[in-house]
Amino acid sequence: MRKWLNKLCGLRTRQGQTTAEYAIIVALVAVSSIAVILIFGDRIRALFATEEAQLAGDETATQSDHDVGDSADAVGGGMLDE
Questions:
Q1: Residues 48/42, Cβ–Cβ less than 8 Å
Q2: Phi, psi torsion values for 62, nearest 5 degrees
Q3: How far apart are the first and last CA of the chain?
Q4: What is the pTM of this model?
Q5: Are 10 and 47 in contact (CB under 8 A)?
Q6: CB 60 within 8 A of CB 50
Q7: Residue 23: inside a domain, yes or no?
Q8: Does residue 69 form part of some domain?
């Protein structure tokens, strides 16, 4: 009965998200990804450079060898130093 009534009145139940909602989600993910890369990009590159040097056999490689300076510490808060 309910199915027939919905068909008669033109009411449809909403199933799933619409294309506009998916576009908003994709835009938010893209913007947040870009923000993270801009904020932490230099620190992440420095960490990978240190690991790369250690894997290549340079036992003396440390984070300070590839540090990006005080500006990254101010922005990132030094969170990746742990």
A1: no
A2: -130, 170
A3: 63
A4: 0.46
A5: no
A6: no
A7: no
A8: yes
What CA–CA distance (Å, rounded) separates 43 from 37? 10
Q: Are 47 and 80 in contact (CB under 8 A)?
A: yes
DSSP for residue 51: H
- Domain count for the chain, please give it: 1
- SS3 for 56? coil
Residue pair 39/71 in contact by the 8 Å Cβ criterion: no
Amino acid at 59: E
- The closest of 77, 47, 38, 80 to 65, measured between CA atoms, is 47
Q: Tens digit of pLDDT for each residue in 21-80?
A: 999 999 999 999 999 999 999 999 999 999 998 898 877 777 766 665 544 444 445 545
Q: What are phi and psi of 12, to 5 degrees?
A: -125, 140
Structure tokens at 33: 């990804």
Note down the domain range covering 52.
31-82
Q: Is residue 15 part of a domain?
A: no
Q: Is residue 45 part of a domain?
A: yes
